[in-house]
């Protein structure tokens, strides 16, 4: 099983869009995929037309062991793609847990209670490095970082890398294995320059697939559908399908035990 967190503490960089559509593309490639919405804003849940009233089964009640996985995990319009939805009560979790021992390990413990029925678990994270993000970092093994090919792309990155480095002390399996350049507008020189900068910084860990700006990607959530079902012929479908192929291609290397994208130079050790 591959356990991936899509992480960037900045909002609006394409995390949720990536989790929804990469997940759906992987499911269409016969992988069994579970998406976890760890953002109290619940954009991923809304992307699949799911709205959870306070108190109803959700990631919050699953983390708190108030509900069993079977009561929380929902199907989506895509076969083999399931969702642990978020509800607004997730926003209070950090305060509720403040000072409690092991508060960063709730998601890791939760994984042990999930059915062993998935090839991929992909977590959508909130735009912060708070308790929910730390829970996901302690539970997952791979970090995918989406970056916009725009001026502030690399700003804030050292904080993100520092957090990953700190979590690696308790979760040795955690690696940054993929950087996704997205919302790319190839017509502008600046976007091309930023893309080069991202490649210089992260080297081979940058996926070859660059996600182009495509208004269809912004429209699809309004219909509760992933991009492949909303518009099978748009750039968004093409790009996320290509990205999923690259992600699947990493499986063979993982099985052979090849190094999994080690820590970046600045955070080696
Ligand atoms: N490649 C893209 N082209 C056009 N719009 C996009 C693209 N990726 C995401 N969006 C839109 O940009 C906004 C922010 O994306 P989102 O995935 O919600 O970011 P995050 O989860 O990081 O906050 C959303 O309205 C989304 O629909
Ligand atoms: Mg989001």
Can you describe this structure?
- This protein is an alpha/beta fold and 269 residues long.
- It contains twelve helices and seven strands.
- Helix 8 (157-167) links the parallel strand 6 and strand 7.
- It has a single domain (2-260), classed as 3-Layer(aba) Sandwich (Rossmann fold).
- The model is unreliable at 262-269 (pLDDT under 50).
- It starts with a strand and ends in a 14-residue tail after the last helix.
- Adenosine-5'-diphosphate is lined by residues 11-17, 43, 127, 182-183, 211, 213-215, 217-218.
Describe the protein's topology.
Blueprint: E1 2-6, H1 15-28, E2 33-37, H2 43-47, H3 59-63, H4 69-72, E3 74-75, E4 81-84, H5 93-97, H6 106-113, E5 120-124, H7 131-139, E6 142-148, H8 157-167, E7 175-182, H9 189-202, H10 215-219, H11 227-230, H12 235-255
Parallel strand pairs: 1-5, 1-6, 2-4, 2-5, 6-7
Antiparallel strand pairs: 3-4
Helix pairs in contact: 1-12, 6-7
The structure holds adenosine-5'-diphosphate and magnesium ion.
Magnesium ion binds at residues 15-16, 39, 43, 124.
